[in-house]
Amino acid sequence: MSNTPVITIDGPSATGKGTIASLVAKELGYRLLDSGALYRVLALAACEEGIDLEDGAAIAGMAPGLKIEFPGNGRVSLGGRDVSSEIRTGTMDESASRVAALPEVRQVLLPVQHGFRSPPGLVAEGRDMGAVVFPGAKYKFFLTASPEIRASRRYRQLLDRGLGARLPDLLRDLRARDRRDEQRSISPLRPADRAIEIDTSQLTIVQVVDQIMQKRRQGGG
Ligand code: DC
User: Fold this and answer.
1) pTM above 0.85, yes or no
2) pLDDT tens digits for 37-81?
3) Which of 31, 61, 96, 168 is the most exposed place for a label (fewest CB within 10 A)?
4) What is the 3-class SS of the chain, one letter each residue?
């Protein structure tokens, strides 16, 4: 519904966006859209089908037939199979970033993303939620943090999941991914018009959530 409120939260990876968006959604009782997961699932499905990751038409053509669901608690399923861990490996970081640069894929995912907007409201998290997918959103946020802080957050996340990683490699990969996300010709990563920027480098997750909730209250809900 076009008058259903939308809060967009964009920014590069490891700014805490995902956790922050899900806490804001929970606090408001809103639905949550993790748009990055859509690109990740498409990348996984393309790899499994043996489709070339440069073949935008083939990947976009596959999208309508995929049954992607978010059953809650950050889980993601593809055709009823839980792919939450599979879509978050280093390989899928890289593959999703390539798939996300394909105009046909971004186009086919537009109506899918619009479909998440339903009462009482939506928190949409990603890179172009405020600029492209929900440009009319009343509240738009753009989170940032230094690359070093983001790499060390990602490092801890991987260790927590029992996965090995090297901090210098993570920093290098993260910079490369930022460059690709910022320089692609379609929907490059940058703050939307009217977006409120929050540098999360020195803030806790709770402090960022509080800032978002406060801005929303100041703006009249
Ligand atoms: O947020 P994430 O790391 O799960 O996103 C995976 C990839 O998809 C990442 O390279 C950025 C891209 N992405 C995008 O281009 N647009 C979005 N709205 C969300 C993610």
Assistant:
1) yes
2) 999 999 999 999 999 999 999 999 999 899 998 887 889 999 999
3) 168
4) CCCCCEEEEECCCCCCHHHHHHHHHHHHCCEEEEHHHHHHHHHHHHHHHCCCCCCHHHHHHHHHHCCEEEEECCEEEECCEECCCHHHCHHHHHHHHHHCCCHHHHHHHHHHHHCCCCCCCEEEEECCHHHHHCCCCCEEEEEECCHHHHHHHHHHHHHHCCCCCCHHHHHHHHHHHHHHHHHCCCCCCCCCCCCEEEECCCCCHHHHHHHHHHHHHHCCC
